[in-house]
Amino acid sequence: MKARLFAKGAFGLMSGVLLLASPGWAGDIKGKVSVQGLKSAENIAVYIDAIPDKKFEAPATKPVMDQTKMTFVPHVMVVQAGTTVEFLNSDPVGHNVYWPSISGNKKLAHNLGTWPKGEKKPFQFNDPGVVSLLCNVHPEMNGYIVVSPTPYFAVTDKSGNYEIKNVPPGKYTIKTWSEDGKVTTQAVEVTAATTTVDLVVKK
Predict the structure, then answer these.
(1) Residue 42 CB neighbour total at 10 angstroms
(2) Which residues pair with 34 in a beta bridge?
(3) Nearest-CA neighbor of 128 among 154, 162, 151?
(4) Are the beta carbons of 181 and 14 closer than 8 angstroms?
(5) Strands 83-89 and 64-68, bridge-based pairing
(6) How many CA atoms does the CB half-sphere of 139 hold within 13 Å?
(7) Among 141, 142, 107, 112, which residue's Cα sits nearest to residue 127?
């Protein structure tokens, strides 16, 4: 009987050790983006670049890019490759949405057409890169969708702060994109704890 209890206790202890060592444990990356020569550190995309030999399933969530008060909202959106974005018109006038390229590749240009208030049009973004959103009807409107190759991304707040949650332990490359600044890259090693990575984006 004692032998059985010992075996059971040893098994439970071993299971606990294995659980603690499980690769499913993830950490967070957070930090602050400072800028040089830019007006603001807000709306800067921060994401983990492509991970070799790693593919991610397309998310079921469909984020909404709104057109309201003659503005694309949010101004900068980051999505994982494979995501379907729904474009909503919340204005009492017709809006058109198109992009002339994705990261300069004109073969990926697309025009969703023009539609009235209250309607949505979906589009699935499968190619990583930067999508510059424009409106044929209102040329003063512009916005951006950054298509990340991984599901690990964030957008900076007004103070330049960002946080990327639930990143599996490992070594990665963090990249930034901003409307007026150069791309910044930084190597990072993530553990099961919070990793702080401060970045600088220059004009």
Answers:
(1) 18
(2) 200
(3) 151
(4) no
(5) parallel
(6) 0
(7) 107
The answer to whether 154 touches 46, Cβ cutoff 8 Å, is yes
Q: Are 129 and 149 in contact (CB under 8 A)?
A: no
Q: Which SS3 state, helix, strand or coil, does residue 178 take?
A: coil
Coil, helix or strand at residue 9: helix
- Read off the pLDDT of residues 134-188 as tens digits, 9 standing for 90 and up: 999 999 999 999 999 999 999 999 999 999 999 999 999 999 999 999 999 999 9
* Token pair for 132: 């510059």
pLDDT of residue 24: 58
Cβ 16 vs Cβ 143: under 8 Å: no
pTM of the model: 0.87
The residues that bridge with 12 in the sheet, in sequence order, are none
Measured CA to CA, the distance from residue 10 to residue 4 in angstroms comes to 10
Dihedral Cα 144, 145, 151, 153, nearest 10 deg: 0
CB 74 within 8 A of CB 155: yes
- Whether the pLDDT of residue 96 is over 70: the answer is yes
Instruction: Characterize 177-201 residue by residue with b for buried, 16 or more Cβ atoms within 10 angstroms of its Cβ, and e for exposed.
Output: bbbebeebeeebebeeeebebebeb
Catalogue all structural domains in the chain, each as residue range(s) with its CATH number.
25-54+158-203 (2.60.40.1120), 56-149 (2.60.40.420)
